[in-house]
Write a structure and sequence with these properties.
6-stranded mixed β-sheet, globular, alpha/beta, 7-stranded mixed β-sheet, binds nicotinamide-adenine-dinucleotide, 492 residues
């Protein structure tokens, strides 16, 4: 393996504008492609948590009084810094996640920078409204959009930098202070974001990074000085975070799991739909929350679709994630591999195997968490591979006859994160968008997430939306101010 030491941060946390080694227990960060630890990261202690909260309080007092146009300039500079380090940060993200460099070079840093630029542009547009309710010369009112205070972001491991930016950028644009707790498996790129914010001139204490596991996350969620929590993670974690935030009546945004449907009608462009189904199942080795893992194909095109899908799946390049030709890297961890392998082992008893990529042997990477793509036709819609989130490259393929039937089956899930439809019929495409129960939907494409569009889940897939102007509501509150223009007549 090439030497990546020069890429590695030398510290664990970022507190009050300083990179800190940390006094807590050190945990190894492991490269998913070879199972080797390449750096140790300290988990935050309770006194470091308190130190960070105190710094964020000070940071908040400075930042909330900073003119929004100045906030915007800092954010723009941070985005530029990230873009200028695209290749370096992409390599770091690949080292942490195992995702193919081919992906991280064009998605992770770009998407983070896009988000920071977008919210920089929003910062100076935040205004209140005049509310005239009494006629000329009478009382009137106005609204003020205020920041919430200290916001907490807790990230999952599949898109670490993207999540750090999607959460911190709207929070900072609104004038909040921010504490980020990255996923324990992928701690590194958060420190690169901290570096960019610092270099861009963000005042000390406004953005902080604390490493750690679920205990650190839980301690922060229930801390009385945290005003808002935004979590990306499993649905069960979302429920715990909601409970932890309940006593403090904290605002919560949840981006959770899914088992999303992708519906392909018989008038669809089949080659494009096959590409969409592959993207929706094999990108990032299947570790994408909004993946369309239940692929419903109209029975008239089933054979043609499956033949093309298998031919193109066989051609997928699996291997060294740092090789730009590689399309699929390993799964993120040995523990996650075991979970996904469990689904693979039980899959043959749950349906017909259409393709099984097996466990690839990659020379020089014998201890990596490798798993090949698999395509199954489950016996029915209720098998666990068809209902539960695998979070690996296992595609469940079903056939259907008509729109009503496929709508009912697509919606028959506790999740509601995403949905996609491939069809040449405009009316049907839009009709399906009204019928499918999901927060993030696509017509004739899948899993593209421009920052201008809100992203989030319905049902058990989440609460609230990230991105787009709607994210600003999640990081600010409205104050209503009544102005009396003449003495009030009191009833006593
Ligand atoms: P996870 O729920 O195990 O962990 C997510 C984060 O929550 C981690 O930082 C973890 O340390 C923290 N955490 C865990 N328990 C906690 C607790 N009790 N209190 C506070 N923090 C706690 O999820 P994961 O395995 O890291 O990520 C995979 C999951 O994330 C999948 O279910 C996937 O669908 C989901 N996900 C959702 C989206 C989305 O936008 N909807 C995006 C990516 C991933």
């Amino acid at each position: 393996m090439a030497d990546f030491n020069h890429l590695l941060p030398q510290t664990s946390h970022f507190i009050d504008g300083q990179f800190i080694n940390g006094a807590g227990e050190k945990m190894p960060d492991i490269y998913p492609a070879n199972g080797e630890a390449f750096v140790d990261i300290a988990w935050a202690t309770s006194s470091e948590i308190e130190q960070t909260i105190a710094a964020a309080k000070r940071g908040f007092e400075i930042w909330r009084k900073t003119p929004p146009a100045q906030r915007a300039r800092v954010l723009y500079r941070a985005a530029q810094i990230l873009r200028s380090k695209n290749d370096e940060i992409a390599r770091l993200e690949t080292l942490d996640t195992g995702k193919a460099l081919q992906e991280t070079l064009v998605v992770d840093v770009t998407s983070a920078a896009d988000s920071i630029e977008y919210f920089a542009a929003q910062a100076a547009t935040l205004t209140g409204e005049y509310v005239g309710f009494s006629g000329a010369e009478g009382d009137w009112g106005y609204t003020v959009r205020e920041p919430l205070g200290i916001c907490l972001g807790i990230a999952a491991w599949n898109y670490p930098l993207q999540m750090a930016a999607w959460k911190s950028a709207p929070a900072l644009a609104c004038g909040n202070a921010f504490i980020l707790k990255p996923a324990e498996l992928t701690p590194l790129s958060a420190l690169k974001l901290a570096e960019a914010y610092k270099e861009a001139g963000l005042p000390d204490g406004v953005f902080n990074v604390l490493q750690g596991g679920r205990e650190v996350g839980a301690a922060l969620v229930s801390h009385s000085d945290i005003a808002k929590v935004s979590l990306t993670g499993e649905t069960t974690t979302g429920s715990k975070v909601l409970k932890g935030a309940a006593d403090g009546i904290k605002k919560v945004t949840l981006e959770l799991g899914g088992k999303s449907p992708l519906v392909i009608f018989d008038d669809a462009d089949i080659d494009s739909a096959v590409g969409g189904a592959m993207l929706a199942n094999f990108y990032s080795t299947g570790q994408v929350c909004s993946n369309g893992t239940r692929v419903f194909v109209h029975e008239n095109i089933r054979d043609q679709f499956v033949e093309k899908l298998i031919r193109r799946t066989e051609a997928l390049v699996i291997g060294d994630p740092m090789d730009e030709k590689t399309q699929m890297g390993p799964l993120v961890s040995a523990e996650h591999f075991k979970k996904v392998e469990g689904f693979y082992k039980s899959a043959p008893s749950q349906g017909e195997c259409l393709y099984d990529g097996g466990i690839p042997k990659i020379q020089g990477f014998e201890n990596g968490n490798w798993i090949g793509p698999a395509i199954y036709k489950p016996k029915d819609d209720h098998q666990s591979i068809a209902r539960d989130e695998v979070f690996g490259p296992l595609l469940s393929l079903f056939t259907f006859k008509d729109e009503d039937e496929v709508t009912a089956r697509a919606n028959d899930t506790v999740f509601g994160l995403a949905a996609g439809v491939y069809t040449a019929d405009l009316s049907r495409g839009h009709r399906m968008m009204t019928r499918l129960q999901a927060g993030s939907c696509w017509i004739n494409t899948f899993n593209v997430t421009p920052v201008e569009m809100p992203f989030g889940g319905h049902k058990k897939s989440g609460l609230g939306m990230e991105n787009g102007k709607w994210a600003l509501d999640a990081y600010s509150q409205i104050k209503s101010v009544h102005v009396a223009m003449s003495p009030m007549e009191y009833p006593y």
